[in-house]
Design goal:
The protein is an all-alpha fold. 48% of the residues lie in helices and 2% in strands. Helix 1 runs antiparallel to helix 14, helix 3 packs parallel to helix 5 and helix 18 packs across helix 19. The N terminus is likely disordered.
Length: 680
């Protein structure tokens, strides 16, 4: 085993790495002083002319307001905002609308949702990530317009405690953690003059051996060594830092962590080289090991005393790895050696910590800090380009590089000169995200119609027309709640748990789309109206009803006849007025002779317990029989349904007249139309 471990590369040999990333050799252009949205449009127009492409005409005002509202805030404009915008004759009203949206609270919420999904993912990581605390940190950063380089640097160098649960834990069916704030930290103690070593999983016996302690506590955490519990710092003494939840997600899994950091912040999918080299690709397995080695001194450990169900508090800190001690222990303990080999940690511990351009961090006191400095350095053009490409794709529907996180020579960028110019301007103006967004939204390219010109058969890779975009689950839920005015109705049933209710609905929608919540960023396909129907129709059906407080309930009270009511529903959903043809069609539909048709069940759906008993009765004849493991797996617990109570009220408030039901059908049709669902 000793020979095997040494063969895996635990011998620390300094091998120089050539300039793979080439930062020192990169030729960066200087952004022209007059760089503006007109510069962007001029460069794109040159490409259109070169490729004989006729761009789409400008989009009409109401559609532009809807588009930019959804892109910047994830919310629909209110009917009042649409009418005021249409009445505004100012030539600068589009620019003014963009700035108003950028300075709204909804802008902060939109980008909190975005980065929460990118960095943490939509799935609760069992007892590990305090999503609520992480979102608090994101909210603070976006509220004070933290420059992007500072935001990333603070995230990558975060230390402290993750805290313990919140509304998102409740939404996942998990109560808050209850823990004494003066509980001692259960952690290995260090003798005077010794070097701390990075810990592994708190339940791993090998971790105890790293500090000469072969015993572990009953709950799997390490006992203190050479120090009484009363001598250890209190749980409350560790400062809470919501950003540490990013590291808690990858609890002692440095390979996944480094892959995400490279992909998200550099646009390089170096994790593809984790297992083996690819002949046609630049990045090799050795590059991946060296990059991952930068995180091997970062420890994520459970802190606390007694655990109940809930989010587990973790501390994220940095420590030095003593390779000499590690070699001695592995030589005498085959189990520890085998553990290190199986999880790949031996290779990463032995590798020279280095950036992707070969910058060596072996002599750095804090390798993670050094890597964060390198990633966010102004001399690193890939950092800015990866972000600009990400933001451009969000607003324009496709990045210069697609997928947005796959920069490589075999996947060249479209219009690399424009990407470089935008990135240089972004850096020159202090990594100001709001300025970058305002530049993009002020271009004629962004303001084009989504209806392409007839000759545009190139797949619209040059943004000659606006690309249709499906909303993320968070945005879709907000759109439905906003259009139907269900906020107040849901608040009645949710009380102070409104965020938990929304999260529960989003979780259901994510499950329907089979979104890869761990690594892929918000990409999904499918028929969204079908998904809404699969969602028991509860949000759209309830929202399209005349429940007291809903939008339709208010619309039905409007004076002015059917035209006024139809127009109000269009403004709420499609952010525009109906055409004369649409008015004529719906007037005829609303006034056709009809009878009230029951559209809700006579009985409420069975609870999960009732459904299990029915299944066991059919299988065994005993409704109280306990399900087997196979039964439990087949009947996996679904995401919590926060609309159960609302369903009962909706069933009891059936339409009182044929015309009322016709209005419900009209509203439901608009809510399930592609024009409502897609951003165009």
């Amino acid at each position: 085993m000793k020979q095997l471990l040494w063969g895996a590369g635990l011998l620390f040999i300094s091998v120089p790495l050539s300039g793979y990333f080439g930062i020192a050799e990169a030729q960066r252009s200087t952004t022209p002083a007059a760089f503006s949205p007109k510069t962007i449009d001029s460069m794109i127009a040159t490409e259109w002319k070169k490729n004989k492409i006729i761009p789409a005409p400008p989009v009409e005002d109401s559609r532009f307001l809807r588009r930019v509202s959804l892109d910047i805030t994830g919310k629909l404009p209110t009917p009042e905002e649409v009418l005021a915008y249409l009445a505004d004759k100012s030539p600068n009203k589009r620019t003014e609308a963009v700035m108003r949206l950028l300075n709204s609270p909804a802008y902060v919420q939109q980008w909190v949702n975005y980065w929460d999904s990118v960095l943490i993912g939509r799935q609760m990581k069992a007892n590990q990530v305090d999503r609520s605390e992480f979102r608090k940190w994101l909210t603070t950063e976006f509220s004070k317009d933290t420059p992007y380089d500072v935001f990333v640097h603070d995230l990558l160098t975060a230390t402290g405690r993750t805290s313990n649960g919140g509304t998102y834990a409740k939404a996942a069916g998990m109560p808050d953690l209850k823990i004494a704030t003066n509980a001692p930290i259960v952690t290995p103690a260090l003798k005077t003059g010794t070097t701390p070593e990075m810990t592994a999983d708190s339940k791993d016996p090998a971790m105890a051996m790293k500090n000469g302690n072969k015993d572990t506590a009953k709950d799997g955490a390490m006992k203190t060594n050479g120090m009484d519990a009363s001598d250890t710092p209190s749980y409350a003494s560790i400062p809470v830092n919501g950003a540490t939840n990013f590291y808690a997600k990858y609890n002692n899994n440095p390979a996944d962590l480094s892959g995400t950091v490279s992909k998200v912040f550099l646009g390089v999918q170096i994790q593809c080289a984790q297992c083996h080299d690819h002949k046609t690709e630049k990045w090799k397995q050795e590059d991946f090991r060296k990059f991952t080695a930068c995180f091997m001194n970062t420890r994520t450990r459970f802190v606390g005393d007694k655990m109940t169900k809930g989010i587990r508090p973790f501390e994220v800190a940095d420590a030095q790895v003593n390779l000499a001690n590690l070699r001695r222990r592995t030589a005498n303990n085959p189990k520890t050696a085998k553990k290190l080999l199986e999880n790949g940690r031996a290779e990463y511990l032995a590798a020279i910590p280095a950036a992707l351009d070969g910058t060596n961090f072996a002599d750095m006191g804090n390798r993670r800090q050094a890597l964060a400095d390198w990633i966010t350095a102004k001399q690193n053009p890939w950092f800015a380009q990866a972000y600009v490409n990400r933001i451009w794709a969000h607003f324009m529907g496709r990045g210069f590089v697609d997928p947005i996180d796959d920069f490589r020579t075999t996947n060249p960028a479209i219009m690399p000169e424009l990407l470089k110019a935008l990135s240089d301007d972004f850096v020159a103006h202090g990594y100001n995200t709001k300025r970058l967004i305002s530049q993009i939204c002020a271009t004629q390219a962004y303001g084009r119609s989504s209806q392409p010109a007839k000759n545009n058969v190139t797949g619209n890779v040059l943004w000659a027309s606006y690309r249709l975009k499906a909303p993320e689950p968070e945005a879709l839920v907000e759109m439905l709640i906003s259009a139907t005015n269900m906020e107040a109705v849901l608040q009645k049933y949710a009380g102070n748990n409104m965020e938990a209710v929304k999260f529960g609905i989003q979780k259901q929608l994510v499950q329907l789309f089979d979104v890869d919540e761990e690594f892929e960023q918000k990409e999904y396909e499918g028929t969204i109206p079908q998904a809404l129907m699969l969602l028991n129709g509860r949000l759209s059906n309830s929202g399209a009803s005349v429940l007291p407080g809903t939008a339709l309930s208010d619309v039905m009270k409007l004076s002015g006849g059917d035209d006024a009511k139809i127009t109000s529903l269009y403004l709420r959903t499609l952010s525009r007025k109906p055409t004369l043809i649409e008015l004529s069609y719906w007037n005829e539909f609303l006034n056709k002779p009809r009878e009230v048709v029951q559209t809700t069940p006579d009985v409420m759906p069975m609870t999960r317990v009732q459904e299990r008993r029915r299944q066991m009765m059919a299988k065994t004849g005993d409704p109280n029989a306990k399900p087997t493991k196979v039964d439990k797996k087949a009947n996996k617990k679904p995401a919590p349904d926060p609309l159960n109570r609302l369903e009962g009220n909706f069933r009891r408030l059936a339409p009182q007249s044929p015309k009322q039901q016709a209005y419900e059908d009209l509203f439901w049709t608009l809510l399930n139309s592609s024009e409502f669902i897609f951003n165009h």
